[in-house]
Amino acid sequence: LSNRPTPELAASELEALDRRHVLHPHQRSQRSERRVIVRGQGSTVWDANGRKLLDALGGGIWVAQVGHGRAELAEAAAEQAGQLAQFTGFFEYGNDKSIRLAERLAALAPANINRTYFTCGGSEGVDTAIKLARLFHHRRGEPDRNWIIARHFGYHGATYGSGTATGIPDMQVAVGPNLPNVEKVMPPYPYHMEMYGGQNPTDFLINELSQTIERLGARNIAAMIGEPVLGGGGVIPPPDDYWPRVRKLLREHGILLIADEVITAFGRTGTWFDSEPRGMSPDIITVAKGITSGYAPLGAVMVDDEIVETVTGGEHSFFHGYTYSGHPLACAVALANLDLLEKEGLLERSLAIGARFRTGLAPAAEIPVVGDIRVVGATVGIELVVNRETREGVSMDLALAVADDLYETHNVITRNYGPTLVLSPPLVFTDQETDRTSAAIVEVLRRVDLAAGRIAPR
Ligand code: PLP
């Protein structure tokens, strides 16, 4: 046991071991420093040096809805580990916690969605949703319907299926053939009207989608996938008429709609599921992250009744399984997490956090580097630009430097997605923590020296 790394090791030792032994998700080139987080309570986390930090990212991004260190969730996990940590949902087996969670999700979901397939996270969920959509059409006697329409700037995960649907080319470069038959269309991005050649963005996008359907042939298209609000693309809400018009067009052509709610569900935007108020009326909803507030890895694919009946009806089997699908411990934690979200009114709290950020960040609107401030419930995107006229984004290095400065000078954890600084604090973020984050951001952005492409010292 003696050489097992534990949090008791010095920070420098942990960092050295990390460099030697860990290949990180979305690892950039080897940065010399890595911040090792070892403990959390509420919206505060501590690194291995004992440094206290305000987590405005929510446990690594859009995850920790109920905050860190919640005894209720630790107890739910411990109790379930003692009772039954794992029993597969394969074959003729099931377990009580996944059944209760599926029942609970059905009660929260739109009326047509009553069945859930559990995964370990969002990427697996998106892959499952793509398979279900293709299988649905196959079973109905339209096997050629296998194209998937996704969107540029969308983020759907890192597996081959979800990674191909992701609209960030870096995900697909140099890793061999990606998933075939995935087509991308433009998303709504109201701050960048130049993308739409002076047209109303929704008109432009509906026209582009119609042409895409015509080009591929409607009878070859299984589904379209989209986030209600683009998350990793930079927290970009669509115009109100976008999803209703997309939905109508898809329905006319028998194309399914998959709402990827891995970020937006469970209160992040102030509702259980964001796709309903946005008029998506999806056939499949994928969720993860906030379903357990990150206390256990869990995702869920919530599926329309007709799709389930068609895919598994008669003698048909759905030959697609993960060992940990419906993991009892993860499902027990999710049930306790949903209790907390409900009991503590965290969906409403999400909207209050957003309103407070709007006020607190208002002074940032005057700072030259700030192009656009977008607040959707308790998530915020601040798009940083080198020029407010052209709306050209700052370099990745400068955006990263802003997040680094917030960490170094204010002990506030944020991060950039491209040129956009993103916040997604726990939904237990207090007014004082919200104001502190806003003030820190305004202070750092005021020090951005655009001419020099750097941040002036404090
Ligand atoms: N879908 C969306 C909208 C996401 O934001 C993410 C992750 O950030 C995923 C899917 C992938 O989820 P996971 O990282 O749990 O595989």
Automatic annotation (TrEMBL):
InterPro entries: Aminotrans_3 (IPR005814), Aminotrans_3_PPA_site (IPR049704), PyrdxlP-dep_Trfase (IPR015424), PyrdxlP-dep_Trfase_major (IPR015421), PyrdxlP-dep_Trfase_small (IPR015422)
Keyword Magnesium: no
Listed CDD domains: OAT_like (cd00610)
Gene3D superfamilies: Aspartate Aminotransferase, domain 1, Type I PLP-dependent aspartate aminotransferase-like (Major domain)
Entry keywords, A to Z: Aminotransferase, Pyridoxal phosphate, Transferase
Family: Belongs to the class-III pyridoxal-phosphate-dependent aminotransferase family.
PANTHER family in the cross-refs: AMINOTRANSFERASE, AMINOTRANSFERASE CLASS-III
Protein name: Aspartate aminotransferase family protein
